Fold this sequence. Notes:
Blueprint: E1 6-10, H1 14-26, E2 31-35, E3 46-50, H2 54-62, E4 72-77, H3 82-89, E5 94-98, H4 102-139, H5 145-154, H6 157-160, E6 164-170, E7 176-182, E8 191-194, H7 199-207, E9 211-213, H8 226-231, E10 236-244, E11 247-256, H9 266-285, H10 288-315, H11 317-322, E12 326-330, E13 336-339, H12 341-347, H13 351-354, H14 365-379, E14 387-392, E15 398-406, E16 415-421, H15 423-445, E17 449-454, E18 459-462, H16 464-470, H17 474-477, H18 491-500, E19 509-518, E20 524-535, E21 540-549, H19 551-604, H20 612-633, E22 640-642, E23 648-650, H21 652-655, H22 658-662, H23 672-676
Parallel strand pairs: 1-2, 1-3, 3-4, 4-5
Antiparallel strand pairs: 6-7, 6-11, 7-8, 9-10, 10-11, 12-13, 12-16, 14-15, 15-16, 17-18, 17-21, 19-20, 20-21, 22-23
Amino acid sequence: MSGDERIFLAGGHEAARASLAEQLRASGFGNVVGSGEIPLRDVADIILLVGSDAPHACSLIRRTPGLGSVPVMALVPRDPPSLATAALKAGADDALQLPVHAALLVHRVRAHLRTRKDWENLRAADLCEQAVLDVLGAATEDGDPSAVIREILFRSLDIMEFERASVVLEAELTNQGHVIGATDDPTLSKFTVSLDVYPELRAAIAGNRLLFIPDLAAYPPLADKAASLAQEGVRSATIFPLTWRGRACGAVFFRSSKARTRPLGPRQVAFGRIVAGIISQRISGGQVIENIKEQTHRVSLRKHEMERRLKAIDQLKDYFEASADGIVAVDGDGHVLFVNRAAEAATGFAKSGLLARPLVELVSPGHREGLESVIQRVLEGTNLEPFDLDIATTSGEQICVSVATSTILSEHGAAILSFRDVTAQRALERELRKTTEFLEKLIDSTVDAIVAADIRGKIILFNRGAERIYGWKAEELVGQESVEKLYPEGGARQVMRMLRSTAYGGPGRLEVTRRDIVTKDGECVPVNMTASIIYQEDREVATVGIFSDLRERLRIEQRLKQAQEKLLLTEKQALVAELAGAAAHELNQPLTSVMGYAELLTKKMQADDPHFRAVDIILSEAARMAEIVKKIGRITKYETKAYVGSAQILDLEKSSDHLAESHETPGSTGCPSGSAQ
């Protein structure tokens, strides 16, 4: 017995537990604790249950998983005598009645501890033997060396009483270690770690010796990292070196989240060495170490190339820092090698936050693939035209930068990208483009023709309204023909004279005026037009004219004029008919009286009467007047005839209704009253 065995006293009175604990300590047992509670977890090498509740407590312990192998002794009162028997039936390994002699108590405790130790040794030997067979079986399997090594490590954890394990090979000429297998995660293999972070690994490999660290917090090289290691679940470790060709080339690294209170047992040390030997044989028999050596060589070569690249960048550092543009140097993988102060200011990132970081992380997802292609082409020695990129800043906002490339360091495996912030400029361009598109749509959608020309007369704008009026397509004229083609001969020059004159709206302005234009088919079309001269700093740069097609308007005016003439004629005819009817009616009555009195006079006068002829003439002229009144009464239309000179008078013959004359009764002829009716 070593005296370090853990003894737990539970139940009973505190005074009784204290007395028993004192007896045990006096006999050389230094690790004795007591509590009124029943232990339901593995806290001791032997449990002593005190008091009359010992049978019940023993029953609880035996039903608790993990406590089946812990020896239990019941220390019960003598009265009643059945308590000891009840405790044994409940699962106690031994039972003593209180008070008990100290020598007997110590003898019985030591006997049970020896029995448990012998049983544990036997069980450990069986487990160790089985674990060795399992490890040998795993080592003979074919497949990926990392997977085989990981399986060996899995089958070693229980024997070694650790939770995690990995195999690390040292890289020559560098302070790096290559993890070729780990139980943490199948993906955690074939990656590189720095041995500066693991001084315990470096010490075990350098000394080619077993290293056991029961508590990392007490290991001087890791004292400042103990807290962070505990958070990562690492509190204790043991390391077995791997040898190849007579020297240490790596290690099997076991780790646990708990501090170890006991050293490694002989069987654990032997088993660990067996595992390390099997893994050494496995990796040396294959190409793992050779591959690591080759990989180390590549790492060394890359390191040399990196140093040469950084030296070349350093030679141009002053030039880069003096530039107002942001400058970034990246390697073939797109990782940032250098940034100047202007780049830091533009992105908001400090240099330390950008170095070794993939540049594509700062670029919007839609531009990342294109940027990778640009970097590769620059490394191949091709300078590209400037292009725009959207990049993120520390504030989370995106800015638009115009990027230029340089192949000055392409031979050193670095691409130089210089950029400047053009966010405001691109926003203005977008607004101008929107405005331009709106104006173009507005110009194209107007009905009137809009034509613009430069100061030499070359057509620069020809909208759809102009296409409809002229019959030309814009692509046939814009940039190719002179505006003179759109006017009759000399028309364009006359318009320019009017624009420069003060008589038509002022210099540079032409108010609405009537002009003729010439279509594609040669047709002369009347239009209303306005025009103006466009100035730039008091210099004439272009002219613009707006044309309204008058053909339809003139046709409408002509039809309106004809309609007005027809309406006027109709009104005249109606007026003449009404006037004729009124005149015939008014003249009919006095004319009837004149003719009546004239006939009466002729009947009372003799033929030789000197006044007879005068009266007869009056009668005949009155009859003639009656005939005229008849014609006036039959007027239905307005017809004229020439009179003296250029005068026009009403033509009674053509204007009277002859059809009405044919319907008159024979007796009505010469009767003024008949005409009136």
